[in-house]
């Protein structure tokens, strides 16, 4: 029996950044379906809805309306059924306090959103190779 490929959950309010991530995932040939939520509350609604497949990883923007990335991360990491899902922050922030806060709340990684698309592809390829080789909690 064929096991479905788990989705990647992208939590990103910026349409251009979301399109860039989608394009990058296609470029590096990631087969996982992508579920896109525009803010933390929408992402939590997806995660808590009965019948939605759990994502293998969450790619999270920090600066969003309604519920920002740090608030979302805090909710996920305190939820008994969600806290083991790895969350990687994708951010334009260069502030050390944002990195520290993300890791303090349980982020598995912090990747820069580069305006240089070829550099962003390299970052995403490295990220994909790392997660493909890692044992993930179930």
UniProtKB/TrEMBL annotation:
Alphabetized PROSITE patterns for the sequence: RESPONSE_REGULATORY (PS50110)
CDD domains cross-referenced by the UniProt entry: REC_Rcp-like
Key words, A-Z: Phosphoprotein
Domain Response regulatory intervals: 7-128
A Pfam family hit: Response_reg
Domain of life: Bacteria
Record-level GO BP terms: phosphorelay signal transduction system
4-aspartylphosphate found at: 61
InterPro entries named in the record: CheY-like_superfamily, Sig_transdc_resp-reg_receiver, TCS_response_regulator
Annotated SMART domains: REC (SM00448)
The protein's name in its UniProt record: Response regulator
Organism whose genome encodes this protein: Massilia eburnea
């Amino acid at each position: 029996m064929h096991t479905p490929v788990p989705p990647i959950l992208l939590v990103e309010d910026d349409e251009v950044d979301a399109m860039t991530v989608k394009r990058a995932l296609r470029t590096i040939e990631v087969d996982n379906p992508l579920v896109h939520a525009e803010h933390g509350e929408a992402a939590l609604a997806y995660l808590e809805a009965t019948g939605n497949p759990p994502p293998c990883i969450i790619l999270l923007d920090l600066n969003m309306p309604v519920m920002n990335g740090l608030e979302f991360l805090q909710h996920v990491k305190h939820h008994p059924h969600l806290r083991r899902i790895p969350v990687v922050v994708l951010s334009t922030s260069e502030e050390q306090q944002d990195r520290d806060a993300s890791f303090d709340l349980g982020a598995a990684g912090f990747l820069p959103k580069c305006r240089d698309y070829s550099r962003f592809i390299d970052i995403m390829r490295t990220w994909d190779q790392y997660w493909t080789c890692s044992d993930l909690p179930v």
